[in-house]
Amino acid sequence: MKAALVISHGSRSAETKKEVEALVMRLKKKSGWPLIRLAFLEMEHPSISEGVDECVKHGATEIKVLMSFLNSGRHVDQDVPRILDECRKKYPQVKIIQSSPVGQHPVIDDLFLELLGN
Description:
By secondary structure, this protein is of the alpha/beta class. It has a single domain, classed as Rossmann fold (3-Layer(aba) Sandwich). 46% of the residues lie in helices and 19% in strands. It has a four-stranded parallel sheet with strand order 2-1-3-4, with helices on both faces. The longest helix is centred in the N-terminal third of the chain and has 18 residues, at 14-31. The radius of gyration is 14 Å and the shape is globular. The protein starts with a strand and ends with a helix.
């Protein structure tokens, strides 16, 4: 079974967690994917490893990791891949695929144009 794991940085702000939880709920409703979970790199739970554990516990054989980060950087290029590599070692039977950060997606231009009012 396919699963999605939305990864966010994490924040001390409770509002930030609520916003990401709301995003995950919207994705669940709109996508039709049977399993979408949320995880955080730091400061919040579940951690990325805990999120992967949760997906596997519910039968995931493939996990698409959706990077809720705008751009590349140390977290996207080093920290998250390191954590996901550890998860791959723990669950060699599970295919774990990391997306690009959302800022690299081709429709980001249209989103910013919409914010400009174009």
